[in-house]
Write a structure and sequence with these properties.
Elements lengths: L3 H4 L2 E10 L4 H12 L3 E10 L4 E10 L1 H13 L3 E6 L6 E12 L2 H14 L2 E5 L3 E8 L1 H11 L4 E6 L3 E4 L7
Antiparallel strand pairs: 1-3, 1-4, 2-3, 5-7, 5-8, 5-9, 6-7
Length: 173
């Protein structure tokens, strides 16, 4: 009988500290696509201008063995300074930001505004025919908001992808 960790899929939020140089993102994405690994979310941004470092946050899924392979292969890329699986290394915070456009009027518009208030979404643009909400939170919260907006005239969604950081004193840098 196979070990359950060899067949059980899990999500992993992996933080990668890299040198901020041309082509590194393409190399990271190429590593995933070349081996058939899926990227569910990807964010990247400079985090230390003085040391020319960027942070890449990747959400992926796989068995424990596959995720260990991903981390090992990322760690072997030359401009990579550090790789951390935040889902295993202790408590962490993970958030996304999204913009949601809802088109419509009347009672649907009022209900969209009531729900936005309950979800702590901010109105960042309003016309007589549409509203654009900005919302930050865990992916599940954003998913719930989207599903409630669908019958009220949901027209468009734009999401940033996950950003994550360890809680407490531990640090990637």
């Amino acid at each position: 009988m196979p070990d359950p960790s060899e067949t059980t899929l899990r999500n992993a939020t992996i933080a990668v500290l890299v040198e901020n140089e041309a082509g590194i993102l393409a190399r990271v994405v190429g590593l995933f696509s070349g081996r058939g690994y899926n990227i569910e979310s990807l964010t990247v941004a400079p985090v230390d201008a003085a040391r020319r470092l960027s942070r890449i946050t990747i959400v992926t899924s796989g068995t424990d063995m596959v995720i260990e392979q991903i981390k090992a292969q990322l760690d072997r890329l030359v401009p990579v300074h550090k790789v951390a699986d935040l889902t295993l290394e202790g408590p962490h915070l993970a958030r996304e930001m999204m913009l949601v456009k809802v088109v419509g009027g009347g009672e649907h518009r009022m209900e969209a505004l009531r729900l936005a208030d309950a979800f702590r979404a901010r109105v960042v643009d309003a016309t007589t025919e549409s509203l654009v909400f900005e919302m930050t939170g865990a992916g599940e919260k954003l998913d719930a908001f989207i599903s409630l907006m669908q019958p009220l005239g949901l027209k468009e969604v734009s999401r940033t992808g996950v950003v994550a950081i360890a809680r407490g004193v531990s640090s990637l840098t």
